[in-house]
Amino acid sequence: MLYGIVAAAIALFLSAALAALLRAPALRLGLLDRRQRQRRVPLFGGAAVVLATCLVAVTGDRTGIAPLGDGIEVLLAAGGAVAALGLIADVWRLNVRFLVLGTAVAAAFVVPYGDTGTLPGVAAVGWITFVALAFRALDHADGVAGTVGVVTAFGVAACVAVEIMDGLVVLLSVFAAALTGFLMHNWPPARVALGACGSLFSGFLLAAAAVIARAGQDPVEGAAVLFALTAVAGADVLLVLVSRRLARRPLLRGAPDHLAHRLRRLGLTPQGVVVLLGVAAFGAVLVGVLAHAAWLQAGAVLWVAGGVLVVVLGLLRVSVYGPARARGGRQGGGRDPRGGRRAARAPRAPRARGALQEERTGARPGPRTMARPAPVYAPRRQPEAAQSPPDSEVRRAGGSVSPQVNASLRVRNG
Length: 414
Fold this sequence. Notes:
transmembrane
C-alpha cells in the first residue's frame, strides 16, 4: 500500500514536470490543438501522461518495489502502442479508420478470452475501442477529459481492488496520479492539451482494466457496470451522433456540438463545465462500483441510463450549428417544383440607350444620335395656361432657372 502511494506521488510530479518541459518543443514544432480558433494549445500533454505512467510502472515492476503481476505488462505495452498511434494522429491528420483499426488490434491482445468466452470477448474488443475513441472525442474542452479520466480511474481501481488484483490497482493509481499532474497545466485556461495520444491511451487503459475486472462474471450485469463507469463519455458520443444525424451533417466532421460546448452556450463558465461534468462522472462511477461490489443491484444502472437520456434530449435543444449558408451567392435560386434547387439567375447587364431605342423603334440611330440620344420618354406638353411667361423665373426643386434656360426647355419639350 505504501509502495503504491509513493509510486503515485512520483508519477504526479513527473507528469507535471514533463508537461511543462514538453510545452516549448510543441510550440516550436507547431503541434497545436487545431480545435481552438482563438487560442492555440500545445499537444504534448498526453505524451507527458503516457511517459510518466509507463516509466513509474515499469521501474516499480523491475525493481520489485511495486510489482504489476502477470498480464499487466501486455496491457501496458498495448496501451503504449495506442498512444503512439495517437501521437501520429496529432502530428499528421490520420484518418479515423486507422485509429479504429489500430485500437481494435491492440484491444484484441488484452481481452482475457479464457474468462470471457469468444463472443463476449469480441464484444469486449469493440467496447474497448469505443471507449478509447469516446475519450478522444471527450477531449474537446480544457480540463474535461482529464477530470473525467481521473474520476473514472479511481472507480475502476476500486472495482479491481474488489477482485484483489494488486498489480492492476497500482497501475491505475499511477495513471490517475499522472493525469492529475497533467491537470495542473490543463485546467482552464489550459497551457497544454491532452491530444489524441493521451486521450486514446486513457480510454484504452480504463476500458481494458474494467473488462479484466469483470471477466468471468455475468455478461449482462457486466455490461451494465461497464456502461456506468463510462457514462459521461458515452453520453457525449450519443449526443454528437444524434445531433449531427438530425442536422444532416457529416458524422466525422468536427463541430462545437459536444457536451462542454452546449453547456457553455447555456451560460456556464469553463471551470463550471469541468466541475459539473466531474460531478456527473462521479455519480455514475459510484453506481457502477457499488453494482460491481454487489452492494446495489444491476438495475440501479437504469437510473444512470435514464439520466444520460434526459441530458441528451435536453441538450439537443441547444442551438449550436447556426443558420445554413445560402448556396449560389446572395441571390438564392429558390427551389424547383420537382424538388431540386433552382440555379440563381445572373443579373442582367445594363443596356445602352442606343440599343434600347433601336429595340423600340426598329431603326438604327445615326452618328449624331449615338453621340446624344433623344430621351425615350419625353414629358407631356403642358397647356399654355400652365406655362410661365418667358420673362419670368421658374422655381424648380428649391432653385431658380434663368429665362433663357426655361425657353430652351420649352423648345426641347416640343
